[in-house]
Write a structure and sequence with these properties.
By secondary structure, the chain is mainly α. Helix content is 84%, strand content 0%.
Length: 239
């Protein structure tokens, strides 16, 4: 390609879409590398990467349809990424046999308290209808939430945003809350993070310890499955 053709390609819709995909991947791995050496919350990939990407897309004036032309495949990868949590769960299956009641109660409490807190927020805080319906399933992992939100009349993209915000908040406040509530056991920390902060919580739990990560992953997946299967019933209860 000549220089002019290269410029024309970069400025074309296809070129911008490809650039957006590369930009997103670069920002994520860049943030991940930074966080590996500097463990501060604002360098966590789930916090830093979206902020940097949003600022760049806004300042470069990339149209959102163009940005999502190729990057939507990254969202599609969330489902197999969630399924991949099954591997550490299988390795630690003896742990599941040891604490079935505790894990079961954690899943049940996490599911209903997450939906109840969202419902109370919607009831007492005036929000647009689309946002309020998309908010109800914010406490489960993104692939499950995007599947279940249709039963509530929510918008999948808004739901994904609410899930992200919930996960980031849970990841940031977990350790102070553990100290305040005197939660010291691996089981308690894992169930709490998996139930309240889903994918981000499972990542944070894995940083704390392997057992915490396994319990958080298990809790997150079971809550997600329960949400998808029970979404029509929950919609009747909470709407």
């Amino acid at each position: 390609m000549t220089d002019s053709r290269v410029v024309d390609f970069v400025l074309s819709q296809t070129g911008l879409a490809l650039f957006s995909l590369l930009l997103t991947v670069f920002c994520y791995f860049g943030a991940k590398r930074l966080y590996k050496y500097h463990r501060v919350w604002w360098l966590a990939p789930i916090v830093l990467a979206p902020i940097v990407i949003t600022l760049l897309v806004f300042n470069l004036k990339i149209p959102l349809p163009t940005y999502f032309e190729y990057t939507h495949w990254l969202m599609a990868m969330l489902a197999p990424a969630t399924i991949a949590f099954a591997l550490p769960i299988y390795r630690e299956r003896n742990l599941i046999r040891q604490y079935p009641l505790t894990i079961g109660l954690g899943v049940t409490a996490g599911l209903f308290l997450g939906m109840l807190s969202s419902w109370l927020l919607v009831k007492f805080v005036p929000l647009p209808v689309e946002l309020s319906k998309s908010l109800l399933v914010r406490s489960v992992s993104t692939p499950f939430a995007m599947e279940a939100t249709s039963a509530f009349g929510g918008v999948p993209e808004l739901t994904a945003m609410m899930v992200l915000i919930t996960g980031v908040i849970g990841m940031l406040v977990c350790e102070p809350l553990f100290k305040f509530m005197r939660i010291r056991t691996s089981l308690g920390k894992g169930v709490a993070l998996g139930a309240s902060a889903h994918g981000a919580g499972a990542a944070k739990a894995t940083e704390i310890g392997q057992q915490e990560g396994v319990i958080a992953s298990l809790t997150m997946i079971f809550i997600g499955i329960a949400m998808v299967l029970g979404a029509p019933v929950f919609a009747l209860i909470f709407i």
